[in-house]
């Protein structure tokens, strides 16, 4: 099935790309989550608009990505959340929570879709997350989760 990506999907492409995927992957995963739309001749007109929006938001060069990476790695991120007696959180820390904590700590504005959490953060303490800034540049950010 031919689809148009509306967001970046790891291993598949970036927003505005027209790709061929298996029918079930598109129908059951990409389209319901809003990551893609079905390709049509009318939808082809939207591709340029999506690409124009992507160019505005993205970090264009590796030098810019390395500059943002150095800013991110220099920021001490503390995230206050509710936790039980044993140090387990009520719920988990989301990429949106991490993005707002980075901004509150004085770091650069980071899109929550670029934050990759290896395993769900459900305990207090220090954790590492990766921020994909460019196709070739990723920053490791330390997040300290403390009880509120």
From TrEMBL:
Keywords (A to Z) from UniProt: Ribonucleoprotein, Ribosomal protein, RNA-binding, rRNA-binding
HAMAP family in alphabetical order: Ribosomal_bL9
Protein purpose: Binds to the 23S rRNA.
Originating organism: Streptomyces milbemycinicus
Domain named Ribosomal protein L9: residues: 13-40
Keyword RNA-binding: yes
Family named by the database record: Belongs to the bacterial ribosomal protein bL9 family.
Superkingdom: Bacteria
Pfam family for this entry, one: Ribosomal_L9_C
PROSITE patterns attached to this UniProt entry: RIBOSOMAL_L9
An annotated GO cellular component: ribosome
Official protein name in the record: Large ribosomal subunit protein bL9
